[in-house]
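## retry 2 of 3
previous attempt timed out at serialization; input unchanged, resubmitting
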Amino acid sequence: MIKPLHFLGGLLLCLVINFSTQAQRRQTSSDEVIKLTSQELFLSSGWVYHKGDNLEWAKPEFNDKKWKTINPQLWLDSLSTTDFEGIAWFRLHLTVDSSLWNKHLSLRLWQRGASEIYLNGKRIHQFGVVSPNSSEEKKYSPFGYPVSIEFEAQKEQVIAIRYSSSNAWQLYQRYGRFARTAGFKLSISPLNDTLSTFYTFTLNELFVNVIIFGALAALGLLHLIIFIFYPQQKGNFYYALYCLTLGVTFFLEYIHKQSHTIDRVIFINIVNFIFATTSILMVVRLLYTLFYNELPRQYWFIVALYSATILVGLNAFLTNIMAYLFYTVAILEVLRVTIVSIKKRKKGALTVGLGVMASILFIFWYSALLSLFSGWLVLPVIVNMLVRYVGILGISASMSIYLARDFAYTNKQLWQQLRKVQELSEKNVQQEKEKQEILAQQNTLLEKQVAERTDEILNQKIELEQQNEEILRQQEAIQQKNEEIEYAYQQIKESIEYARNIQKGILGSQSEITAQFKDAFIFFRPRDIVAGDFYWFAEIKDEEKDLHFKIIVAADCTGHGIPAAFMTVIGCDFLNEIVHNREIYQPDAILHQLDRLVNEALRNPENPQPIHDGMDIAIVKIDEKTNNLQYAGANNPLLYVRGGEMHQIKATPLPIGSSHLHKDKIFVMHQITTQPNDSFFIFSDGYQDQFGGEKDRKYMKSNFRQLLLEIAQKPANMQKEILKTTFDQWKQGKSQTDDVLVIGWKI
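## retry succeeded, writing output
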C-alpha cells in the first residue's frame, strides 16, 4: 500500500500545483491583426500606461511612445507605491481586420476600481465614477458584463481607459493577497455568442448555487437535529458541520455575483476561503469519527496546518505554500483512511470510499483538463459545471447514504429492544397472576387451620408479609418498565411524524403543482403516517433548445410505512437525477433509467440475491404547444375521457425494481394528440383495492373507472371532493387498506 500512496501523493501534489495556475486563454498584442473566432479574445498585452489624469490622453493621435508598458491588472505585490497613485490612463493600439469593421462586438471588463472606456477618442461606456478622491470615486465590479462595441472602418484603432482605484494600496495593506490586484482585464468576442453564454451561464450558476446551498443547509440542519436527539453517533455532528460550511461557500458564491462593491467582494472572498478550508478539515474529522475509536496523532498535525493556513491567509506567498501543503496532506489522509477502512471491511467504508474516490477523480479530471489542455480544448459550460459539482458533492452524497443506513440500523435495533421489553412485561404480568392465585390458596388454607395451628399461622404470616414486600417490589419494577415502554413508543412516534414532514417537503406543494395546469387536482391519502405512494412533477423550459413541456408522475412503492417511504425518497431523488441532471425526457427512457438505478441502489454487494422491492409508476410528458402527450407506465395505466367515453392506455406489465421478475425490461411509450376538454387520470391501486361496503369487499377497477367517467367534466376541486366523499362512505369507518393517490387534469 505504501508505493501506490507515494505515487498518488505525487500525483495529487502535481494536481494542486496545476490547479493553482489559471487556465491560459487566447491573448493578443498590439502588433497583431485582430481576427475573432467563436472563442473569447483577451487583450492582456501591449498596454502602455501613464499615471495622472488628462482627457487629452483619450485622443487617438496622442503620442504615447514614452509611456511605460505595464500589465493592466496592476499586481501590487510587483509594483511600488510610486508606480500607481490612485488614478492613471491605459492605452492600447490595435490593428483591426477589415472583416470586423462596423460589426457589433462584445467588450467584457473585470476590474477592481472605476473606469471610463474610450474607442478612438469617443467614450463608449463607464463602470462606476472615476476620481482620485475616495469620497467622490465609486468603484464597480461588473464581473465581465458584456458591452456592445463597434470598430470604425480603419485599420488602426486605439482603446484608452481612464482608470482609478484610490484606496488600492490601503486595501492591499489590510487584506494582503485578497487585494493584491488593483487593475482590470479586458476581452473582445462575438456579441451574440457572448450575450447568450453570459446570461445562460450566470443564471445557471446562480440557480445551482442556491439549490446546492439549500440542499446542504437542509442536510446540515437535519443531521444536527439527529445528533441532538442521538449524541452517541458523533458522525452526524461533524457531517452537519461539513454540510453547513460547504453550503456557506455556495451561498457566498451567489452573494459574490450579486455584489459589485469592491471592498465587499474582497471580504466575501476572505470568508469563502475560510469556510472552504474548514470544510476540508471537517471531512478528515468525520472519517476519523466513523472509522477510528480515538483520534490519531496525524490529525493534530493537519489541524496545525489548517490553523497556519488561516493565520497567514493575508500573505500571498505563505498562503499559497500552506494551502498547497494543507490540501495535499488532507486529501492524502482522506484517501489513506478510506482505503485502509475498505481493506479492513469496516461498516460503511465502501459506501464512503466510493463517494470520496468519485469526488477526487472528478476534481482531478476537471483540474487536469483545465491545466493541461486549456490552450486548445474548450469544454461546454454544462460539462464544466457537472464535473465540478459532482466532484464537490460526491462526498456529501456518500456520507448521506452511510448515515441514513446507520440511522436505519439503529432504528431496527430499537424495534428489537422494544419487542424484548414487551415480552418481559407480558412475562411479569403472568407471574403476577400466578402469585395472586397462590396467595388466595394460602389464605384459604390458613382460615381452615387457624384454630389448631396458631403458632404455625404466625410463622406463615411472617412469610406472607415477606412475599407481599417482594410482590410490591415487582409491581414497582413493572410500573417502571411500562413507563420506559411508553417513553420509547412516544420517541418512535415522534421520529416517524418528523419523517412525514420530511417526506412532504420532498414531494412538494400540491397546490403549486396543480397551478401549472388549466384545471387539476391531487387526491393523496397515506395509509400510515408516512406513505409508499408519491407524486412528482417537473416543468422543463429551455428557450435556447426550444423546449417547454411538463412531466407528471404517480407511483406506488412496494409495501407500506417506513420501508415504502424510503423507496419514495429514492424514487424522487432518482427522477430528479434522470430528468434535471441527465436531461432524459422521454417517458420510456426515464422508466428504463429509473429501473436500472433502483436495482443498483437496492443491490446488496455482500448478499447478491434478487431484488423483490420496487414500484409501479405512470409517467406522462405533456407538450401543450404541440398538443402532444407521451406516456409510459410500469403496471400503472393512463385513463382519459374524451367525448363522454373512457379510454385506457395500458402500462407495460413489469414493475420498476424487482429484478427477480425480468432482467431485460422494455417499457413501451404511447403518444396521443390531446384535444380541448380532454380529462386525464393517473393513480395507484389504493383507491380501487379499498375494502368496504355492505359486504366488506374491494371497490374494484370497474367502479373506480365509472366514477372517474362521471366526474370527468366537473371542476377539479369538485372531482377531488367527490373522490374523497365516495372513498370515506365506502370505507365505512374501517381501516384504510393501502395508500391512495389519484391525479387528474384537463387540457
